[in-house]
Amino acid sequence: TKLATRFVSDTPPQALVDRMTKTYLKSHGDIRQVLRTMFRSPEFWSRDAYRAKLKTPLEFVASSLRATGAEIDNTAALTGSLDRLGMPLYGVQQPNGYSLKGDPWLGAESLLARLNFALALTSNRIPGVRVTLPSNGAQDSSQLEAQLERSLMDGRVSDHTHETIVSEMEAPPPTPASATAKVAGAHPGGLFAPANQTGSAANITATAAGLLLGSPDFQRR
After folding, report:
1. How much is the mean pLDDT over the chain?
2. What is the model's pLDDT at position 193?
3. Measured in whole angstroms, how far is the alpha carbon of residue 161 from the centre of its chain?
4. How is the chain classified by DSSP, letter by letter?
């Protein structure tokens, strides 16, 4: 059940669990064969299983760094980010560890913290981490968003997410405090350094990229 919960969904189909259990018993506990049964199952490849899992904070941070091609010189701030996101490294004793399900990470405060991390990452406000986003050669907000979607998510973004972010990009800019209240003013001694005073085009690109990483599409796997 734990393997199916980890890889398929928080509530994996009982038929799949039963087949995996049968393989486990028949193979005398050979996990490779159990995984083979799962990976070859129709349930694993079903539409219901696509992006059915909410990323843990660790998965979210790691995938954000990977998607942006971040250059990391110091991991201290990233470790602190995981603390703030509610998943300190080695913060739960084994053998149980952190929950494999999404419920612990679904609260509004947790999701806001993820968005704040994403905005800080894309605007280069995390000490020891540097991100270089695609140059803004787009003609309008929709083209810029599509460019970022291809770069960060291989273009796999829902129409709703695309339209929502484009709408935010074209709206009057919010005050810095309202956009990044939880990440501002926490350096030194905290997680994030002050935002760089860069050009408006770079700021728009960074904000759009941060909103994309904070979107429901990126939160799921």
Report:
1. 82
2. 41
3. 14
4. -HHHHHHT-SS--HHHHHHHHHHHHHTTS-HHHHHHHHHTSTTTTSGGGTT-SBPPHHHHHHHHHHHHT-EES--HHHHHHHHHTT--TT-S-TTT-S-SSSGGG-SHHHHHHHHHHHHHHHTT-STTEE--PPP---SSHHHHHHHHHHHHHTT---HHHHHHHHHHHHSPPPPHHHHSTTTTT--SSSS-PPPP---HHHHHHHHHHHHHHTSHHHHB-
Beta bridge partners of 220: 54
Give the pLDDT band of residue 52 (cuts 50, 70, 90): confident
The whole-number pLDDT of residue 14 equals 95
Written as one letter, the residue type at 158 is: S
The one-letter amino acid code at 195 reads: A
- Nearest CA to 65 out of 144, 151, 129 is that of 129
Distance in angstroms (rounded) separating the CA atoms of residues 90 and 184: 27
Compute CA distances 165 → 65, 90, 129, 174, 219, whole Å: 20, 35, 24, 14, 15
Calculate mean pLDDT across residues 40-54: 89
User: pLDDT by residue (tens digit) across 13-39?
Assistant: 999 999 999 999 999 999 999 999 999
